[in-house]
Amino acid sequence: MKQVEGRTAFITGGASGIGLSMARSFGRAGMNVVLADIDPDALETALADLHQRQIKAIGVECDVVSRESMQEAAKKAIAEFGKVHVVCNNAGVGAGGPIEEVRPSDWDWVIDVNLKGVVIGTEVFAPIMREQGEGGHFVNTASMAGMVSPPGMEPYNATKFAVVAMSEGWRGQLEPLDIGVSVLCPGFVKTRIHESGRARQSEYGEAVEENEAVAGAAAEFVLNGLDPDRVGERVLEAVRGNELYIFTHPDMRPAVEMRFAGIMEAFDRAEQSDALKGSGYSSPQDLTAIGRQE
Ligand SMILES: NC(=O)c1ccc[n+]([C@@H]2O[C@H](COP(=O)([O-])OP(=O)(O)OC[C@H]3O[C@@H](n4cnc5c(N)ncnc54)[C@H](O)[C@@H]3O)[C@@H](O)[C@H]2O)c1
Predict the structure, then answer these.
(1) Which of 25, 34, 38 to mutate to test the pocket of ligand 1 (most atoms within 8 A of CB)?
(2) 32 part of a folded domain
(3) What is the CATH number of the domain that holds 167?
(4) Whether residue 239 has pLDDT greater than 90
(5) What is the model's pTM?
(6) I need a labelling partner for 233 at 20 to 30 A (CA). Which of 21, 86, 163, 225 fits?
(7) Cβ(115) to ligand 1 under 6 A?
């Protein structure tokens, strides 16, 4: 979407960190902004920040795990600004730990917010954008944890890999409607993600005291992370350029290369495998045919 001025962005998890940084960048570029967040106090503070910068913005309380809440928030956004052109499915939380310590409720919480929240945001807004007929753009926040899987972060990693996968698929589905899809994969960014237990809904139970060494190390990485405002600016560039993958930490390339090298070595072993020799099978090469809508 080359022309963003005068258009409207809807950002989940918009009251803090990366979401707020996108709001500032979009607002500076002349967009209207809707912050959708579960935390009303953070919304108030974030809105004051945007208004002080002369950015046209409203805040709506929204829990991304609830379809009704997302639909309500969409209605409020449209009532205020008429249309929504850019949707950032960005709200996210973290939990992890040793296999025997991650509780079912931790898995549920992380999957519901990080994965299903992105599904709900896409399913609510894609029909709205189609109806508007002006194209649009989705930015789904994954992570470098959607590209490589550090041990101890499995619930988080699983949801972020899923966000990458869904974004790749939806991009193909939505392209004919002139709706772009990007997947944002940052490394460490200086936000409050290490305190995400503050946004944990009561139905998922109390956040447990995390293993101190693990939590401490993660917090230190985050607190020494990239300035979030850099991420907002990078996202704006990528929306204008309709980029699929958005990276903000180019120095993390070796971690991805190492993973892909391991995958390529596994293909080499398959090519040389006695078990597979002479099967005569050949796979279809154009997998996009599966979901192509004529
Ligand atoms: N900070 C990092 O190092 C980093 C790195 C890679 C990816 N990310 C991803 O970036 C996204 C934004 O996180 P952040 O780092 O800005 O953290 P943050 O904690 O500063 O901001 C997250 C925001 O999401 C909101 N939120 C949480 N649960 C919600 C829900 N159910 N419904 C609506 N809003 C909800 C919180 O209230 C908060 O305002 C997340 O998806 C996170 O996984 C962060």
Answers:
(1) 38
(2) yes
(3) 3.40.50.720
(4) yes
(5) 0.97
(6) 163
(7) no
